[in-house]
Every structure is written in structure tokens, then in C-alpha cells.
Amino acid sequence: ARPRVGYFLSSKPSQALVAEEIKKIRVGDIKGLPRVIRAGASVYEAIVSMFLEDVGTLMVVDDEGHLEGVVSRKDLLKAAIGGGDLQKMPVSVIMTRMPNIICTTPDEPVLAAARKIIEHEVDALPVVRPVNGQGKKLKVLGRITKTTITNLFVELGEGRS
Amino acid sequence: ARPRVGYFLSSKPSQALVAEEIKKIRVGDIKGLPRVIRAGASVYEAIVSMFLEDVGTLMVVDDEGHLEGVVSRKDLLKAAIGGGDLQKMPVSVIMTRMPNIICTTPDEPVLAAARKIIEHEVDALPVVRPVNGQGKKLKVLGRITKTTITNLFVELGEGRS
């Protein structure tokens, strides 16, 4: 029989080790590029931008690039069947608005970010940092999505992460 | 110093163990319920159904429940801005159709299913089994989505899976 090491004496040692490895990974290690649109853009422009960039969620920013809102494919679909003029409707009318946006930061463990995605039933989180001396304004650094997490899962399963 | 066991002598032992644990999980262990719509339904009905069931992908089935197609939120958004009459347009016109659907089976490792999601850039895979004696017909047993994978990642990170 192999000698047993203290660390591996718990009833499910490998599970604990998997959890420990996952907890080490930070948002900053795997975040994707931010995909943004200006708050003044129309819903129609947001839809076109979503197809061109092939993303499911766009971050809505002001002229200085600070986070104002988030708009999902679901929000756009709802607007598209609503019967309004999509070229005249500003995206700011249908977006989820600050301070109701669930965000993450580069230092947060990816596990915590993934938990936010599940609990708040969103597809993506903006990765942000506070803007120095500007109160609650947030600069958008990137995004973490269900695709990012699925990709990380594949890398972990292949022993690449 | 702790005694070392052969298994843990590789240069990145914990990574290998994480990969090994992930490889053990099968699609059948974590699949979600299928969300289906009949091929005769309209695009409008598909959109309503997607909102009511709060899913991003619907499986399109024939009268016997066999897989005919898959329709995503992206397909519906494209149709919604296309200007047609959504109540008259059958969902079968816009769906991805057999045999072009990427599927998985209960016995497949989740890792392989997750890889399919990433490689084929889809949000969800139908979990299927062949129908006995009916050629290429597939019965829909469930679904694996990026949400399923994100949820599994959270469970692994919390030591629950």
C-alpha cells in the first residue's frame, strides 16, 4: 500500500484538491476584451454591433469610457418584438443601468465571478476598477462570460490551466 | 518533509489530478431538462417560449419528439429585425436543421461536450440517443449549456461535485 500523506487523509481528497486549484485562478488571469457601445447608440446599432462582434452582452459606456449599463441579447430581443422604431430608440432605454450591474474585478477569484453569473442569472460580468477620485465611476477593463468559464473548464480538463 | 507518493511526482501534479477528476464527469450526470418546441410553431411562439422558460436555446422536435432542429436567441433576434411577420413564419425556416446539429450523449464526458460548445461556437447541445430501428432519428433526453458548465465549475470550486 502507498504511504498516506496528511493532506490526503480526508474522505474525498481529490475533490478538495480540485477546489483548491480552482480557487487560485483570478478574473485577471482569464478575462476577455471588453465589448462596448456608447450610451447614445440606438438599439438597432447595438444589435448590429452584437452580430458583428459575435457577443451576447455589450457594456454601455459614456464618453470617457465609464460603465453606464449592460445590454444583453435578451434585452435586444425583447425590444425587437416590442414594435418600436429600433433606429430611434436609444440603447440606454433598455439597458440594465448602474448601480444595478453585477461586476467583478481582476483580483476576484474566478469562482466568485462564476457564482455571481449563476446567482444573478446573467451571461456576462464587466471586469472593472474604480476611477481614482471620481466617486462611484468604474472603468471597464474586460469581461467574464459563461463562454470564458466554459473555456477555462476545457483548459482545466485538458491539464492546460 | 512529507513523503512523496509516485503519483504526485510529476512536475505539475495538481493540474494532472484536476484534469483527471474533470474527465470522470459524464453528460448524463449533469444534463438539464430538454426545452422543446414543435417544428410547426411560429417564430413568435418560439420567442415567447424562450422568455417563459428563460432559456437561450430551444430544441425543435417533430410530433414524435424526435430532434429536427435547434433555434438560438441569436437566430430569433436575426428573424425579429428581418421585418417579416413573426406570427406567420414557422420556426423551421430559421432553425439549424438536422444533420447539422452538434449533439452529445449521456455517456460522453462533459469535457468533450464543453469542447464542442467552444469549437462550434454554440450555447447549448441537445443530449440525445438514437431511436431503435429508426435510422438516424434521435430522441432528445436533455441539454448541456454554457450555464450547465458554469454551474459545474462552481460546484467543483466549492468541492461539491
UniProtKB/TrEMBL annotation, chains A, B:
Residue ranges crossing the lipid bilayer per the database entry: none
Keywords assigned by UniProt, alphabetized: CBS domain
Coiled coil: none
CBS domain span: 29-86, 95-161
Domain of life: Bacteria
Record's protein name: Transcriptional repressor CcpN
Organism (species): Neomoorella thermoacetica (Clostridium thermoaceticum)
From-to range in the entire protein, with total length: 51 to 211 of 211
